[in-house]
Write a structure and sequence with these properties.
- This protein folds into three domains: 256 residues, HUPs (Rossmann fold, 3-Layer(aba) Sandwich), CATH 3.40.50.620; 172 residues, Isoleucyl-tRNA Synthetase, Domain 1, CATH 1.10.730; 56 residues, no CATH class.
- 49% of the residues lie in helices and 13% in strands.
- The chain has a four-stranded parallel sheet, sandwiched between helices.
- α6 crosses α7, α11 packs across α12 and α17 packs antiparallel against α18.
- The structure holds zinc ion (ZN).
Length: 504
C-alpha cells in the first residue's frame, strides 16, 4: 500500500520515491502580494498543508517552502495607484494572507522566502546561464534563449513551433519569440526600491527566475515536489524547469503536482435557492470576506472534498452542501458528548498517532475493528495520489458506523457505560484520523445564531412552550412552532434527553 503521485511531467501516477530517502522537499508557488487573496489562492496551500500532514504521518521529514512574490510589475502598478511603496503594500497584503492561512489551519509552511531578499541568488543563476551562452543581455535586459534548451516544452508538452503561434509580436530585441526575461532593466519612472544593482545595470528579476532561485536555495538543485495551480504549467513552470536545469545540468523537481482551479458553476446556481446577488458577492469575495462569512474549517473541508486535480465548483449551493456534510460530524461529536459527558476531541490524539492508542481498551471488538478498517480505507485513498475526497468519504462511513452503534446499543437511554466509552473512543479515533488532513483540529465554536446567548435563551423559551403544548396534546400549535422555525432555517431535534436546536 505505497504512495503514488500523479506527475504532470510524465502524465501518469508514479510510485513516490523521494530524492533522499526519508526526506521530502516541497515548493509551492505562493502569492504575488499586490492585492488581497481570493479563494483560488487558498486552494494550493490547503491541499499542500493536507499533503504535508499526511507525509509527516507517513514518516517523512518534510520541508515545505511557499514563496512570496514581492517584486513584480503588478505590485509596482498597484503601489503607484495607492500612493504607497511596493514594500509597504507587499507587507500589508502578506499579513492579510498569513491571517487567512491561519484561519484555514494551514500550519505546515516551513519557509516563506521573499523574492526581494534573494536578488543575489537570482543574479548568480543568470550569470551561470550567461556564461553557458544560454542567456543573453540586450541593453540591460537579460533573456533566456529557448532554442538552447533541447527539452524546452517537456512539462506543458508544447513544441517551440506551437508556442510561437501563440506568442504576441516578437520584441525586436529578442532572438526568438519564445525567449523570456530573466532580468528586466529598470525604467526611469519605476520606484527606486525595485531598482537592484546587477552586472547588467539596475533592474529587477523576472517572475520565473525568482521561483527557481528560492526553490534551489532552500531545497537544493534537485528536490521532490513542485506544486502550483494548473494555470502555472505554462509558461511559469516550464520556464522554471528550463532555467534551473540549464543552469545545474541536473533535474529540477522530481514530481510536478498541479491542482485544479476554482470555477463558478452556473448550472448548480440555478438549482440553489441562493439569490443571484449572493452568488455574485461570493465570486467577488476576498479570502478575508469569505472567512468573515464562513468558518475556516468549512472552507478547508470544502476544498478538500474534491480530489485536488479536479476543478473546484465554487458556488453558494456547493458550500451549503459541504456545510451539511460537516454538520453530520459536528452532530455526532455533540451527541457523544451528551451521552458521555466528555468531549471526543479530548480523546483524539495529535496527528500521526491514530494507531498509537490501545485498541484493546474497546469492549466491542466489532467497533474496534471498524475503526481500524476506516483508517486503512483513509490511508488507501491518500496513498492514491492524495485523494482527500476518498479519505473524507471514509470518514463519513466511520461517522455512520458510530451513529449506528449508538442507536443499536441504545446509548441515549439505557446503554451500558462500557458501550458509551466505546462510542467516545471511536469518535476520538475518527477525529484523530481526520487530523491527518487537518480537519477537526479543535472544537468549533457554536455557529451563527447560537453564538448569541440571547438567541439561545429565546430558543429555550420556545422549546419549553412547545413541550408544554405537546403535554396538553395541542399538536397543531406545537407543530406550527416547529414549522415556523424551519422556515427560518432553525431545526429542532427531539432527543430522548431533551430538545436541541440548531441554525443553518
Ligand atoms: Zn513560482
Amino acid at each position: 500500500m505505497s504512495l503514488t503521485v500523479y506527475n504532470t511531467i510524465t502524465r501518469k501516477k508514479e510510485p513516490f520515491e523521494p530524492v533522499t530517502p526519508g526526506k521530502v522537499g516541497i515548493y509551492l508557488c505562493g502569492p504575488t502580494v499586490y492585492k488581497p487573496s481570493h479563494v483560488g489562492h487558498a486552494v494550493g496551500p490547503i491541499i499542500f498543508d493536507a499533503i504535508k500532514r499526511y507525509l509527516v504521518y507517513s514518516g517523512y521529514d518534510v520541508t515545505w517552502v511557499v514563496n512570496i512574490t514581492d517584486v513584480d510589475d503588478k505590485l509596482i502598478i498597484e503601489a503607484a495607484n495607492q500612493g504607497t511603496t511596493t514594500m509597504e503594500l507587499a507587507e500589508r497584503v502578506t499579513v492579510d494572507y498569513l491571517d487567512a492561512m491561519k484561519a484555514l489551519y494551514v500550519e505546515g509552511i516551513d519557509l516563506m522566502p521573499k523574492a526581494s531578499e534573494h536578488i543575489g541568488d537570482i543574479i548568480d543563476i543568470i550569470k551561470r546561464l550567461e556564461a553557458k551562452n544560454i542567456a543573453y543581455a540586450v541593453e540591460g535586459d537579460v533573456y533566456f534563449d529557448v532554442t538552447k534548451d533541447d527539452d524546452y516544452g517537456k512539462l506543458s508538452n508544447r513544441s517551440l513551433e506551437d508556442q510561437e503561434g501563440q506568442r504576441e509580436l516578437q520584441s525586436g530585441e529578442k532572438r526568438n519569440p519564445g525567449d523570456f526575461a530573466l532580468w528586466k532593466a529598470a525604467k526611469p519612472e519605476e520606484p527606486e526600491e525595485v531598482k537592484f544593482d546587477s552586472p547588467w545595470g539596475k533592474g529587477r528579476p523576472g517572475w520565473h527566475i525568482e521561483c527557481s532561485a528560492m526553490a534551489m536555495r532552500y531545497l537544493g538543485d534537485t528536490f521532490d515536489i513542485h506544486g502550483g495551480g494548473l494555470d502555472l504549467i505554462f509558461p511559469h513552470h516550464e520556464n522554471e524547469i528550463a532555467q534551473s536545469e540549464s543552469c545545474t545540468d541536473k533535474p529540477f523537481a522530481k514530481y510536478w503536482m498541479h491542482n485544479g482551479l476554482t470555477r463558478f458553476n452556473t448550472k448548480k446556481v440555478a438549482k440553489s435557492d441562493a439569490s443571484p446577488e449572493m452568488q455574485e458577492a461570493l465570486v467577488k469575495m476576498t479570502l478575508h470576506n469569505l472567512l468573515d462569512t464562513y468558518p475556516g474549517e468549512l472552507i478547508r473541508y470544502f476544498i478538500l472534498s474534491t480530489q485536488y486535480r479536479r476543478p473546484i465548483e465554487y458556488s453558494e449551493a456547493e458550500i451549503a452542501g459541504r456545510r451539511k456534510g460537516l454538520d453530520t460530524f459536528y452532530r455526532l461529536f455533540e451527541r457523544v458528548e451528551r451521552i458521555t459527558g466528555s468531549s471526543a476531541y479530548d480523546k483524539a490524539t495529535e496527528i500521526g498517532a491514530p494507531q498509537a492508542d490501545a485498541s484493546s481498551s474497546f469492549s466491542s471488538t466489532a467497533l474496534s475493528d471498524s475503526c481500524d478498517e476506516y483508517l486503512q480505507t483513509f490511508i488507501r485513498s491518500m496513498n492514491d495520489d492524495f485523494n482527500t475526497a476518498g479519505a473524507i468519504a471514509a470518514l463519513f462511513d466511520f461517522a455512520g458506523t458510530v451513529n449506528r452503534f449508538i442507536e443499536e446499543e441504545k446509548l441515549e437511554t439505557t446503554g451500558s457505560d462500557a458501550s458509551k466509552q466505546d462510542a467516545l473512543l471511536a469518535t476520538g479515533k475518527l477525529i484523530s484520523v481526520s487530523r491527518l488532513i487537518g480537519i477537526f483540529l479543535e472544537p468549533q465554536a457554536k455557529k451563527s445564531a447560537s453564538d448569541d446567548g440571547v438567541a439561545d435563551q429565546a430558543m429555550q423559551v420556545l422549546i419549553k412552550i412547545r413541550q408544554h403544548l405537546r403535554k396538553k396534546k395541542d399538536f397543531e400549535t406545537s407543530d406550527l412552532i416547529r414549522d415556523l422555525l424551519t422556515e427560518q432555517k432553525i431545526t429542532l431535534e427531539d432527543r430522548p434527553d431533551g430538545t436541541i436546536w440548531r441554525a443553518e
